[in-house]
Amino acid sequence: DTAVSQTPKYLVTQMGNDKSIKCEQNLGHDTMYWYKQDSKKFLKIMFSYNNKELIINETVPNRFSPKSPDKAHLNLHINSLELGDSAVYFCASSQDRTGEQFFGPGTRLTVL
Amino acid sequence: AQTVTQSQPEMSVQEAETVTLSCTYDTSESNYYLFWYKQPPSRQMILVIRQEAYKQQNATENRFSVNFQKAAKSFSLKISDSQLGDTAMYFCAFMKLGGGADGLTFGKGTHLIIQP
Predict the structure, then answer these.
(1) Which chain A residue has the Cα nearest residue B103?
(2) Tens of pLDDT, residues A78-106
(3) Whether B10 contacts B111, CB under 8 Å
(4) Cβ separation A97–B98 shorter than 8 A
(5) Rg (Cα) of chain B, in Å, rounded?
């Protein structure tokens, strides 16, 4: 059983397109996150969601929007994709606001 | 805001040797968690070890142990009897207590290579 899953694992698209990455966790956790890992492997938090509420929103372009249909899912929508959006995107979840975060396998997004 | 610094971009050791990865952090928080995550070539993020700042005892997990120096804001990872499967990127991460909504703050990582 996969604890945190993401689809797709690879996504290649053209500049200007709109795309979504799905994330699901079966751990019953109450907080979910999106991280971005750039080409230099640096990881940075983008969003977190708790009880269907967006908790934080870092300096992320408003082209990025998280959507949570329910507690187990946190999808990432990206509009008008740019070359600089190419990265690996990780979804994660945690039991509470102090616990270990469990990561999904990552989605490698390539914008051409 | 907190920062996490890993000063060793890459390290290489022979199999079975002991290796120590360095991590320092800066924060004004008094209660927080520190983590070491491993990212092998498969890119999966795997928790190696976790330390609560309010605990004086250093955390250990089998061959992995930390040297946590709260006053110095240092959190190094020691890997004993290194194995080929330990080859990976290692990330040090910080999270303030009750601050899960802020997510993890990561260092830039250390690429560890275990040579046969």
Answers:
(1) A45
(2) 999 999 999 999 999 988 655 689 999 99
(3) yes
(4) yes
(5) 14
